[in-house]
Design a protein that fits this description.
single chain, 4-stranded antiparallel beta sheet, 29 strands, globular
Length: about 375
C-alpha cells in the first residue's frame, strides 16, 4: 500500500462498517476534546491502524494513523535469502529463505507477488507470496542458465527474466507460473525493463554493448530493434511515459538515454556519472533518474529535462540495486559491500541519506524491488 505521511479526514481504505460502527473523524476528535485524551480517541480504532504515540499530559505530540508498507525486497547473494523492509519504519520485518544465489528481483504492481532470479547454472525463478505472514516461496519456475534481471509488466500477467549464460529472455505467464516463450537477445543480458504499456521489453546486453527491444505483442515475441549504447550496459529503466529508456553503462561510466518513440529507437543523450554505474531507477514523475556508482559508493541524480547530474549522494560500499518508493519521496539503495540499504530523502535539497538498514550478506536487488 502506498506510503502516506499526511493526516486525512477519511478513514483508511480497508475500513468496514462491521468493524468500525459509527466511526468518524468527528467522533474521535469529540472523544479527545471531552478530556478522554489519546487513549479514548485511539480506542475507537482497529489496533492495526494505530502507531506509537508520544504524549505529554493529555495532548499527543504525534499521532499517526496509517497502515504499513510498501515493502522493499532485498536479495542477499551470499545469505541466500531476501530481506523484507517495511518502508514506513525502515526496519526488516521478515527474511525469506531461498537457499542459493538470489540476484534480480521484481515486485508486481499489486504488491502481492515477488519474483527472484536464482543465479545458478540450471536457473530458476522463485515466486514469493507477499500476502502471507511471513512471506514465503510458493512456486519455483525453471528458466534459462544464469538468470539475472527480472521485470514484471504493469498488468502483473507476464514476468521477463534475462538468462545471462544462455543469451535469452524467458517469459513467464503468472497465472500458472509457466514459461510461454523464450527470446534470443544479445550476449550476456543483465538488466531488463518493461514499458508502462506492456508492449515493449528492453534488455541490456552487457557484452554486446547493445539494448534489445522486444515486441511482446507478436506471436512469438520478437526483437524489433537493437540499439548500440555505451560499454558494458547493465541496469536499465523506462520512464513512466514510456518514451525514454535509461541504460547504466558500467564500463564507460555513463548513462545512455534512448528515445523509445523513434523508429528505430535511438540514443539521444549520454550522461557522465560515477565509476561503474550499475543500478538505475526513474521517479514516478519521470523528472529524476537515480544511478548507483559501484566504485564511488555514490548515487548520481539526473534531471531528465536536460539530462544533467544535479546531485551526488554518498551511500554505502559498492552500491548496486536501486528503487524509488511509489510516492517518489524515498530512494532505496542496496550496498553490496557494506551489507545494508541506504535510504535517501529524495525531496531534501540536496538529497541525503536519512537511514541505513542492515540486511543480509552481499545484497544485489537489481530491479524494481519496492511494492
Amino acid at each position: 500500500m502506498p506510503e502516506n505521511d499526511d493526516p486525512k479526514d477519511d478513514l483508511p481504505d480497508d475500513a468496514s462498517p462491521k468493524e468500525t460502527p459509527g466511526l468518524s473523524r468527528r467522533r474521535i476528535l469529540k472523544a479527545l476534546a471531552a478530556g478522554g485524551g489519546v487513549a479514548a480517541g485511539t480506542a475507537l480504532l482497529p489496533e492495526r491502524w494505530v502507531k506509537p504515540i508520544v504524549e505529554y499530559g493529555t495532548l499527543p505530540l504525534h499521532a499517526h494513523v496509517s497502515p504499513t508498507g510498501p515493502y522493499a525486497y532485498i536479495t542477499n547473494w551470499n545469505s541466500g535469502n531476501v530481506s523484507v523492509i517495511d518502508t514506513a519504519t525502515n526496519t526488516v520485518v521478515a527474511t525469506v529463505g531461498l537457499g542459493t544465489w538470489p540476484f534480480g528481483v521484481a515486485v508486481n504492481s499489486a504488491g502481492t507477488r515477488v519474483y527472484v532470479a536464482d543465479h545458478v547454472a540450471v536457473g530458476v525463478v522463485k515466486v514469493i507470496d507477499a500476502t502471507m505472514t511471513p512471506p514465503a516461496v510458493v512456486a519455483t519456475v525453471g528458466v534459462g542458465n544464469g538468470p539475472s534481471g527480472v521485470a514484471v509488466d504493469s498488468a502483473g500477467s507476464r514476468v521477463y527474466v534475462n538468462n545471462q549464460w544462455a543469451d535469452t529472455v524467458s517469459i513467464i505467464r503468472t497465472s500458472d507460473n509457466t514459461v510461454v516463450a523464450t527470446v534470443n537477445v544479445g550476449v550476456f543480458p543483465s538488466g531488463v525493463a518493461v514499458n508502462p504499456a506492456g508492449d515493449r521489453v528492453y534488455v541490456a546486453n552487457q557484452t554486446s554493448n547493445t539494448v534489445s527491444a522486444i515486441d511482446v505483442t507478436t506471436i512469438p515475441p520478437t526483437v524489433v530493434a537493437t540499439v548500440g549504447v555505451g560499454t558494458g550496459p547493465y541496469g536499465i529503466a523506462v520512464n513512466p511515459a514510456g518514451d525514454r529508456v535509461y541504460v547504466a553503462n558500467w564500463q564507460s561510466n555513463n548513462v545512455s538515454v534512448i528515445d523509445a518513440t523513434a523508429i528505430p529507437p535511438t540514443v539521444v543523450a549520454t550522461v557522465a556519472v560515477g565509476i561503474s554505474p550499475e543500478g538505475v531507477a526513474v521517479n514516478p514523475a519521470g523528472t529524476l533518474v537515480y544511478v548507483t556508482n559501484q566504485f564511488n559508493g555514490t548515487v548520481s541524480v539526473i534531471r531528465t529535462s536536460d539530462n544533467t547530474v544535479i546531485a551526488t549522494v554518498s551511500v554505502g560500499n559498492t552500491p548496486k540495486g536501486i528503487a524509488v518508493n511509489p510516492a517518489g519521496t524515498r530512494v532505496y539503495v542496496a550496498n553490496n559491500g557494506s551489507n545494508n540499504v541506504s535510504v535517501i530523502d529524495a525531496i531534501a535539497t540536496p538529497p541525503n541519506v536519512i537511514a541505513t538498514v542492515g540486511v543480509g550478506a552481499n545484497p544485489f536487488a537489481i530491479g524494481k524491488f519496492i511494492g
